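Issue: ligand-bound run for uridine-5'-diphosphate - logging full I/O for the record.

Environment: standard queue, default settings, no custom constraints.

Inputs:
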Amino acid sequence: MPLLLTILGARPQFIKASALTRAIAKKIDLGWSQSIIHTGQHYDAKLSDIFFEELNLPRPDFILRLQSSEREARMNEMKLGITNAINECSPDAVLVYGDTDSTLAGAQAADELGIPIIHIVACLRSFDLEMPEEVNRIATDKLSSILIAPTTTAIENLHNEGIFGNAPGGDIMHDNALYFTKDMQGLKSKSVLLTMHRPSNVDDLPRLESWIHSIGDWCMLHHVEAAFPVHPRTKKSLVALFGLVWSQVLLKKNIHAIDPVGYIELLRLIKTSGLVITDSGGIQKEAYSCETPSVVIRRNTEWVELVNAGHAVLCFEPKDLNECANAQFGRTIDGEDVLYGDGEAADDILRIITEKLS
Ligand code: UDP
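Outputs:
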């Protein structure tokens, strides 16, 4: 039975892995088995364990415990652990998702051992080399043997770089959002879901403060409450800005800070909100999957089709938030334009992998 070794390490990857794991179980005739390695990049229970439970992911066969807090040393620890796992289970291919440090560490370890690399959610470009994710994406694409691009824009990006990828009929995160919301009631309320964790927004304290004020002022003006699941990185900055009373400061602006939530609760919040304000790559797309308009608080996005269709608007300056939120709040998304497939992309991906590796 051919074996895939899947490298997971961060919250968005646990979610991405769920769709293909279901496809592997469903398409028994294709004969694939899967081993999972958890690199330990996100080890916090709220960013890790809950996803394995909710998404029905098998427990990892290998779990790394990273000792270092410095990036280069952590990359080396991950590479060593992945190399050991590859040597132990001799996979037919190593599968990496997205654009995190775990993605790149997995690709580099497999490349050094000459094992085929499958990169899923490949070929995206924000054209912003200041984003560590962009650097990871480009490097991983260059090392990979099979590139699975989720959109036609991603395929064009690749052609422009002189490499060639494969286009399944959509994106696996959209598969998951549809799968896990199929029985969910989606009555829109007058509320907002807010998330932010990109270093460019939250490590720069004056900028973070400006976002809190502009988003909070907009919420107050429109008598809207915002739910704000706070990423650990963002929490550190909020404590540095406002002290231990940070959540009280936010509450005075109608922003309810909560701990990070599980995937199902996150989808419920998106589905029942009138607007999503986010800098997350995944959540801007999940907003579309749940037919909720969004304001993406970034200079650029790798999911350009959302902006082209008007489902998301980019807002780089906190002073522009009012105008952007006014334009998007309550906007209807009818889901008639099929940007990311029909929810069955994972089956297609498994078929492509089988053809390419046989
Ligand atoms: N997510 C979640 N709970 C939260 C915040 C995010 O389940 O409190 C999920 C959400 O589905 C998102 C994924 O985690 O698509 C990755 O989110 P994150 O914003 O951390 O990473 P990015 O997509 O920007 O790489």
